[in-house]
Amino acid sequence: MFIDTHVHLYDKQFDADRDDVIRRAIDAGVTAMIVPGIDVPTSEAAIELSERYDEIYVAVGIHPHESAKLSNGDLDTIERLSHQKKVVAIGEIGLDYHYDFSPVEQQKDIFRRQLAMASRRNLPVIIHNRKAIGDTGEILGEAVNKFPEWRNFPPTPYSHDTAPKGVLHCFDGTLDDAWDMTKMNFNISYPGILTFKNAKQAAEIASRLSIEFFMLETDAPYMAPVPHRGKRNEPAYVRLVAEKLAELQGLSLEDILRSTSYTVYRLFGIGELEPPKIAYQIRDSLYLNITRRCNADCVFCDRKGEAVVKGHNLRIEKEPSVDEIIESIGDPAQYKEVVFCGYGEPTIRLDAVKDVARWIKEKGGKVRLNTDGHGGVINKRNIIPELVGLVDSISISLNSIDPEQYGALMRIDGKRFHQAMIDFAREAKKHIPEVVMTVVDIDDIDVERARRFVEEEVGVGFKRRPYF
Ligand code: SF4
Ligand SMILES: [Zn+2]
């Protein structure tokens, strides 16, 4: 399930063997390819290809390099083409200040007009930016404010968010720029550049930002990944980009493919949502989705919305019984650990946690509990002694070391629950082999202060987890 979201299949470098290149990609597991035009003829060529191959989809648009060559009526032609069945975006459009092919003011003008077009057509955009992230961000911000209706619909039936607005392909900006883009509901992708040794900034962004914001692309015939660097690129090589992203994210290749495919579904409407799951694998751990109930209501939580994590649909309609949970696990010993988690607070079902954990331990598995640390308040007693021997490891969401911010983030009584959570961690430390506290990586959280507090004052392990 590889999806190459950016491949110039009409390029003349493919003239001699285009069908072989496409066939090789399909044989290598590429299930969809999005071909972005750079002007009218290439947009038309992309549409022709999409009529011949089920796997090919199209974006139509004028590339910044071509802005100077634009003739009267070209933008109207692009808009007319955007009505074709397999056109999924306007692109590639944007700004390029690296090469001096078109005057800046002209680039900006054509970019703005195509964003207006995308909003009229309610289509996402595929953005090219090079040495122009400041102006790109500014113009995107303008468009987002000017066209409040643009992509203002839930991408899936349950989503609380509106649909993503586009992708910055071959992203050329800093980590802070990347965060700014995701806040405006844009995704990010990198072609083979991610595999280059000197692409430090790309590697940093691809390891810090949550996988939920990324898609795969090759930008073929350009940007071939290592070990093909400098040669002609082709869509079958998208696997090399995916493997690098897996390495940077600390995820498995399967996780990358599931997650990026889901992002493609939200953005371009290609593919479908998986059915909900009780047990789901990430890396070599198995997670158990035993409840969607929670005593908190975190501002960043998607429990009542889409509830999709790395492409896994967690939107179970009813809570599974102990037998159903056990059946969904299979052999617990084949995983590094089995984690009570899901979108919800597992200690709300303490008895089910204990029953399933006992069974996992009998079968030789390892058990972790992911919790908000409010189990004591929820169950009106100290529950740690009951978990001894059943749970090997506990992860507690610290969220913030400041009770007031904690309360605001979780929309609960900050003072009361913050103290309860700290007490829970201290108690757990006495009885459970491994205890860690986690914070979400969002920019108004002081991660280093949180680390010191956890390590020095509570005396347990600390982990930062990416926000999405
Ligand atoms: S504690 Fe977890 S499940 Fe509950 S609202 Fe917060 S993020 Fe969502
Ligand atoms: Zn391109």
How are the secondary structure elements laid out?
Layout: E1 2-4, H1 18-27, E2 30-36, H2 40-52, E3 56-60, H3 74-81, E4 87-96, H4 104-121, E5 125-130, H5 133-146, E6 166-169, H6 175-183, E7 186-190, H7 200-208, E8 214-216, H8 238-249, H9 253-268, E9 279-282, E10 285-288, E11 308-309, E12 312-313, H10 322-329, E13 337-340, H11 350-362, E14 367-371, H12 375-379, H13 384-387, E15 393-397, H14 403-410, H15 414-431, E16 434-441, H16 447-458, E17 461-466
Parallel strand pairs: 1-2, 2-3, 3-4, 4-5, 5-6, 6-7, 7-8, 10-13, 13-14, 14-15, 15-16, 16-17
Antiparallel strand pairs: 9-10, 11-12
Helix pairs in contact: 2-3, 4-5, 8-9, 10-11, 14-15
Bound molecules: iron/sulfur cluster and zinc ion.
Residues 6, 8, 36, 92, 219 line the site of zinc ion (ZN).
